[in-house]
Amino acid sequence: MDLILRNARAFGHADHAVDIGIDNGRIAAVAPGLAADGPAIDLAGRLVAPGLVETHIHLDKTCIIDRCTAVEGTVAEAVAQTSAAKRAFTEDDIHARAVRTLEKCLSHGTMLMRTHVEIDPGIGLKGFHAIRQLARDYAWAADIEICAFPQEGLINNPGTDVLLAECLRNGARVIGAVPYTDSDPRGQIDRIFALAREFDVDVDMHLDLGDTPDGMQIEYVCDCTERYRWGGRVAVGHVTQLSTAPSAQFETIARRLADTGVAVTVLPSTDLYLTGRGRDHSVHRGVTAAHTLVGHGVNCSLSTNNVLNPFTPYGDASLIRMANLYANVCHVSRPAELAECFAMLTTRSARLMRREGYGIAVGNTADLVAFDCADARAAVAELVPPLFGLKDGRLTFTRPRATLRPQRAGDDAAVIGNLIAMR
Q: Where does residue 412 rank: exposed (0-12), middle (13-18), buried (19+ CB within 10 A)?
């Protein structure tokens, strides 16, 4: 074996320690007391999970908050501020900012990612080209999938359609949509499904941001999914309006989502930041109850969305933090539900992206992350950072455990200097 992880608590397996044997970049064995030779790491009962999955992030417009003014905290302001900032974007600038956030993602255990990239006549294909190059540069650490989408509208923004098609011809595996910024929301939805069928790609829409359940498009998306027979290939993100729906309406929509195979991605940080801005008391949280949707048979993921821009002016790209934030906001406390939050960063997210060969099983790619805790529940509840990650069986990052130091004289400056140098 190239490497053996001994005494590991493997996510998705029975609640006892196993050994995970890795050979030629794949998982060769998962068994207690594995009789095999090779370099070994004793996990001493710590959690090992498949690489974390980021289903919805925006690397092309990350780290621009210093170029914008976020005062109102509304979707309209964020779109306008980003649109203005995009005029000065270059491919090198996009790549450099994306590297800054991507490396944070990697250090927190993310190994599979879908990043949405804005496409329109104003910015052209700069974002697409920059992120496609980024995906090549960091293929050793993560698999990055591009979703091309029209943030500033499609029907109302002539020329966008042609650019989206060019992205799909040149490697974008997903097409996105933002109906609420378009002059004809359902016209955009129809056209996006038509493009998805033409190029045989998946659909991932930004959908239904708002403070009331009025005027939601989610059921129309379900209708289109059924009509195009695209079940299992459609995801919708945000759906903050659904969080305001009465229970009967919520349950009806949940059943419709499950029946048609439409997945939901909840984005806790952004949804909290942008929702309820018009109220001065009893402010809506805007975070849809993904674990309740899961209970109705809907596949769901939790994800980051934006980092350091007008849509979300903070963030460290930690998916574990997103799961913990979600659990706080949505009153998740039962051990099984906390473990389900972890699944919405891993197995459920991989299913949303239709990835085969994912997970801790013999024959699968050895994309693994070790956490300094015994189980997934603790990882979410205690915001446990990962200790190290393996991509294709090769070490991609490490994070040393904190060390407590009783007071001693004379070496503080040297120790601190070494820590800074390690960064």
A: exposed
Model-wide pTM > 0.85: yes
d(CA 31, CA 51): 20
| Domain formed by 3-51+358-398, architecture | Roll (2.30)
For the structural domain made of 52-352, what CATH number should be given? 3.20.20.140
Burial track 355-380 (b if 16+ CB lie within 10 A, e otherwise): beebbbeeebbbbbbbbbbbbbbbbb
Residue 85 CB-density burial (10 A; 0-12 exposed, 13-18 middle, 19+ buried): middle
Burial class (CB in 10 A: 0-12, 13-18, 19+), 345: buried
Strands 110-118 and 394-398: unpaired
87 pLDDT higher than 90: yes
296-345 pLDDT per residue, tens: 999 999 999 999 999 999 999 999 999 999 999 999 999 999 999 999 99
pLDDT tens readout for residues 105-137: 999 999 999 999 999 999 999 999 999 999 999
